[in-house]
Amino acid sequence: MPEITSNDKVAVQSFINTQFGLNDPVLAADYAEIAMFLSVEQRWGPEVARLSGFLEEEYWVQTAKGFSNRLSTAISTVGAQLGFSNYSNGIVMAGFTDPGVFTSYVSKGSFWKDAVSSNHGEYSHSLQWLTLGLAAAGKRLSLRTTASYLFKNAVAHQSDKEFVVPGRNQPSKIYLWDFLVDCFDFGPDPDWQANTATHTARSPTHFNTRIQASKTWIGRHLRKRYAKRGWAAPGSPTPTSTKGYAIERATQKGYQQQHSNSGGNYVYEHSRVTTPVTVNKPAGPRGRLKGQLTISAGAWGAEAPRTATLQWTTRLGTVLRLTYLGNTAEFNAGCHDVTFDFGEDAGHRLTVLNLAKAKAS
């Protein structure tokens, strides 16, 4: 049985229930559903595309407001909507975190930014679990418990037997978390009952590689992020170590060191767990998002600066309000449906208004 397939539900459920000491058929069934879901790209791929749409909207709201850490904040917002109530977006794990420290964060429901290698990816685990949460919310993944609970509980159970773990000198016991979402895409031929090698989304490296190969917004965004930093593409035989970059950035940005170990690995936290950080980065054009322009003052219908407010609400309910000062010759008093753009591409020619003249609140 090299890889988990859609026909293995009973076998996977029984294996998880007994091997990881759950003694709970309902919980084991949920974890088996997760393992099977992540093993079939035809199931998780469309969910990533759906997730990408939500992330894109929230990202550009943060851009318009001038906040830094925009992708982490977008992930946080989507996570909160999907029941990850204890989600944190100001945690960085630079290098391999000690197991006890790692499990303490997971058991509290914290997401984090990984800094191990370009293959693994910074956001792979967050995106894995948001994909699962979105699929469950849409009844496309059948779970009887919440994705948030399953996330936190995945580090509460260790295997009875020892698994072959790529990169380790000898077999060792693993957490249920490792079995589900932290496998490796190299080493021995995959065998889900004997090792943690897989060529499916149960491996964060495989998941990261496939996302960046996709045509989704999150795929494009991550590719640009890697190119800007000069990192090797995911799946590279010579991945870039991202630990040093993370340590340098965390130090520059005032993160507080919480944990360290003899291997020179660190965990950092930042106040942006609760407080957004403002930067001077104006929004440029991209996105073609729909909103409403409400006329609040001025003599309209003339080619002269007038004041108006633009309000746009994302699908998750985040509200962006923009105060606009510009040419209003196309408009009359009242409320107008408009198309407006956000983003990182060049130019400021917009369909209705120029966000370079707008201030967000």
Largest sheet: 5 strands, antiparallel
Structural class: alpha+beta
Q: Could you say which overall geometry the principal axes of the C-alpha atoms support?
A: globular
Write down the secondary-structure element order: HHHHEHEHHHHHHEEEEEEE
The proportion of residues in beta strands is 5-15%
How many distinct helices? Answer: 11
Overall average pLDDT:
85
Measured as a percent range, the helix fraction is: 25-40%
Number of strands: 9
Radius of gyration: 23 Å
Which SSEs are present, and which pair or pack?
Blueprint: H1 9-19, H2 25-38, H3 41-65, H4 70-81, E1 91-94, H5 99-107, E2 113-115, H6 124-137, H7 147-153, H8 176-181, H9 204-212, H10 217-229, H11 243-252, E3 256-260, E4 266-269, E5 289-295, E6 305-313, E7 319-327, E8 335-340, E9 358-360
Parallel strand pairs: 1-2
Antiparallel strand pairs: 1-4, 3-4, 5-6, 5-8, 6-7, 7-9
Helix pairs in contact: 1-2, 3-4, 3-6
Tags for this model:
361 residues, alpha+beta, 2 domains, 5-stranded antiparallel beta sheet, 4-stranded mixed beta sheet, 9 strands, 14% strand, DUF5636 domain-containing protein, DUF5636
Describe the structure.
With 361 residues, the protein is an alpha+beta fold. It folds into 2 domains: 9-273, no CATH class; 289-360, no CATH class. 36% of the residues lie in helices and 14% in strands. The chain is built from 11 helices and 9 strands. It has helices spanning 9-19, 25-38, 41-65, 70-81, 99-107, 124-137, 147-153, 176-181, 204-212, 217-229, 243-252, and strands at residues 91-94, 113-115, 256-260, 266-269, 289-295, 305-313, 319-327, 335-340, 358-360. The strands form 2 sheets. Strands 8-5-6-7-9 form a 5-stranded antiparallel beta sheet. A 4-stranded mixed beta sheet has the order 2-1-4-3. β1 (91-94), α5 (99-107) and β2 form a beta-alpha-beta unit. α1 crosses α2 (25-38), α3 (41-65) packs across α4 (70-81) and α3 (41-65) crosses α6 (124-137). The longest helix has 25 residues, at 41-65. The protein starts with 8 loop residues before the first helix and ends with a strand. The model is unreliable at 279-288 and 344-357 (pLDDT under 50).
